[in-house]
User: Which sequence fits this backbone?
């Protein structure tokens, strides 16, 4: 069963290929994605790597968490499911204290 890992990259020079290669040394990588800012296209400093099994994922965590990549420490954890966010949106938020809404 695939296991997704959350990877914090403290270096913005790391590419998806670099990420894939680092994790492939510890098992089968089925997917490697770096998150980018929608407006600028620049890396956001984190990504996800999916390993083919939970055993390989744990092996990668043990081997790579805290190691240096591009001169910076890497943080690797098992990814948690995305949490549901409550409401929000443009008109769904609260008005700031002391300010009135004008539409």
Assistant:
């Amino acid at each position: 069963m695939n296991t997704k890992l959350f990877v914090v990259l403290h270096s913005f020079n790391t590419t998806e290929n670099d990420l894939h290669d680092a994790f492939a040394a510890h098992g089968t990588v089925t997917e490697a994605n770096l998150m980018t800012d929608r407006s600028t296209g620049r890396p956001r400093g984190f990504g996800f790597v999916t390993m083919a099994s939970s055993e390989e994922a744990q092996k990668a965590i043990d081997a790579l968490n805290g190691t240096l990549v591009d001169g910076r420490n890497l943080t690797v954890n098992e990814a948690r499911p995305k949490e549901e966010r409550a409401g929000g949106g443009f008109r769904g938020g609260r008005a700031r204290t002391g300010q009135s809404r004008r539409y």
Summary: The mean pLDDT is 85. DSSP finds three helices and five strands in the chain. The first helix runs from residue 16 to 24. Strands lie at 3-9, 29-36, 43-51, 68-69, 72-78.
